[in-house]
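Cross-posting from the modeling subforum.

Setting up a comparison between two proteins and wanted a second pair of eyes on the formatting. Protein 1 (sequence, then structure tokens):
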Amino acid sequence: MNTPFDLVGSVSPGRDSWRFKVRVVRLWSVSAFLYLDQVNSIEMVLIDEKGAKIHATIRRQLLYLFASKVAEGNVYKMSYFSVMPESGLYRTTTHPYKLMFEMKTKVQISESSKIDLYGLSPTSIDEICGYGPDHDFLVDVVALITGVTEEREYVRDGKVCKMIVLELSDKSGKCGCTLFGAYANQLKDLLAKNDVGLPTVVVQFAKIKMFAGKVSVQNVMNATKIHVNPSIPEVVSFKQAMVVDGAETSVSIAHIGHPIKPSFEEEFLSKYPKTSIGHLLELANDGIYIVSAVVVGLVDGQDWWYPACKCHKSLTPDSGSFFCKKCDKHVFKMVPRFRVKLMVDDGTAECVFVVFDGDMNILVGKHCQELVAGAKAQNAGFCPPELEIVKGKRVKRICSDVSIIETFDAMSIPNEEVDEEVDEEVGEGVDEEVDMIVECVEETQLGGFVGGLIISPKFSKAEHGVNVGAGTVESEVIMV
């Protein structure tokens, strides 16, 4: 008997008179690239009674029509869509096409017990490791949490963000799972409700990544969904089939990883030796030291940003595109990131410090892409007046907290020579955290913004620089 509804699996271009009965298994909003407080689109994943899934988008111009009509978890009768090819690195389904809401799209609330509530497509850890980081599709993982790190804090885009790393295990193997921001908080709340034994976690719509040389998964901002010990068929089947030594008798999750990143107070006031720039310039060995200094001005004629790959490494213009040495491939999209050189003086000497994206975001209070857009992609020879920061020794961390600076200044610099022996492992954890990336599924805004910047990817230095704020003392910072 013919059904009055089309099957999601049959969707293809060439018509718009589609009629579906589907459940919204996931729905989230995507912010505009330069205006994070504005919604650019609403993304969703739809599933029909056959279990077929497809991605759908409500673009910004139609939000006023549909934003209040669609909610996650509900079943709807929907009709009239345009169909477009699906592509990108963060595909939520394996369907080759996606649906676009149009002015004449109809949405009507409905019910159906035949349509799955969660729409899970579990992927084993062995399969995840086999796919590797080049896999374009988001995956669903059902696994035991057999290890967890301490919650860490790091700075991203000028904001302090929390991060936690899990060890996931199933009968095929183990892998890491990194959760950022609200996802880290959500997991803590869910684990607090766990009774006895190792909890089973469901991470839906996760991205496969390579971290510290190993394949892992991490959340995709707003798209990923997390469940702990949910009463759903896939989890029941997993628990019945799962065989891990000690899994049935374990009463707590093992602690894994390195110690958490020290606080500002610990790092700036007690962890590392205090010194002066004059003494720093005389040191023969590399190390981590603390200095208190003022920013005199920016270094003339120097680049203040660089084109970065999604892996955060700098890109080299090549044949009309960019080449990333780390990824070993050409890319056509980049993200501007800060690399600012400042002349710094503490009264004993002057030197140049280089400060990168995370610390610059804190001190400037703006993202690099905002300043690049305002500067129309100008680099060397032009510096926006908002900029202020550091080089010489690589900056690990910056603090502008007034109370810490006052305490720091009250501490005398030891007269004896600073011990030049430094633990080489210090700072590795920080570098690892910085390399972790929180991704967004929607990339069209980034592409549109960057498009004008990479038509002719040449970043030559100007012959004569512009001195911004030279000779003035604008701010005081202490630096690692």
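Protein 2 (same layout):
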Amino acid sequence: MAAMDDKELPRLLYKPESWTKRASVIFLDSPVGTGFSYAADADTDGAGFRTGDTIAVRHILSFLRKWLQELHPDLLSNPLYIAGDSYSGMIVPAVALGIATSSPEPHQPSLNLKGYLLGNPVTDHNFDTPSKIPFAHGMGLISDELYEAYKKSCSIRDNTQQQSCVKDIYENHILEPHCTLASPHNRRIDKPFTSGGRQMLQLQDLHLSEISSECRTTRYTMSRIWANNDTVREALGIHQGTVPSWQRCNLDLPYTRDIKSSIRYHLDLTTRGYRSLIYSGDHDMSIPFIGTQAWIRSLNFSVVDEWRPWFVDGQVGGVHAKAMPCYACKVGVRRSSLKMVYM
């Protein structure tokens, strides 16, 4: 989105690197109650918005089958990849396995699943959380002495202690400002006032001039204004009355995190022959690449391509490696691989 002032609607900018140049892409609002998604019974007792990991997986599977098998059967033969980032690391592998193991209804063709992609994925608390302080040490954010003291005095599983250690750092991108005012969880921004029974936003209430243009969270605020504009909603085909106000983060959504680890899904999918791409940014301390590397190693796959650089316009963009189940390395069965990319 382009910069804006208090009087104009944010403008979209053309992105020449868009994935839509290579594939047809569906961006799905999930779980129900996020984005422009809604439940028909949510206005009665709220049951439609009581969701969680396994419910979200079931809803996504239902959507994909209806979209591809009933509404767009002409797209069924296209290779299908499921993708997501962050907390989608718990959902995407389960969705992919659901497609891989489900039997289609009689006279219904199967979805042409080929693999999945995940960026900085939440995977397992036992790997993700303990990697934060070693990451901070490796990036030079804490001294050797503090790191050694931490290992001696703090439990490596104690999330409270770790949060205290990094509270002044923007975990999602350690080189960017920690922008409290522009936080997507800012209640002053997320709770619009109501006028005549309709939720509305006033640009002057957001004090955009107070939010530094250096903060990526500025765009979070801009997206809120953009998505609630009547012209935008009409262009997107949003049915009137379904979602009174679009929120980037619906903090009131009852959600049960009932998938504790997605490692078993990765193991199952890769041994079944499906491809996967796991990519991590080197400045993300929320889900550090150290933890991602650790759970990938726990799969005990054979490394078939050692760490080596990848290039963009002749410059090193990062490094990558590829691993495969041992049986796939030795036997000429369906080739599968799990690829780790570090950026």
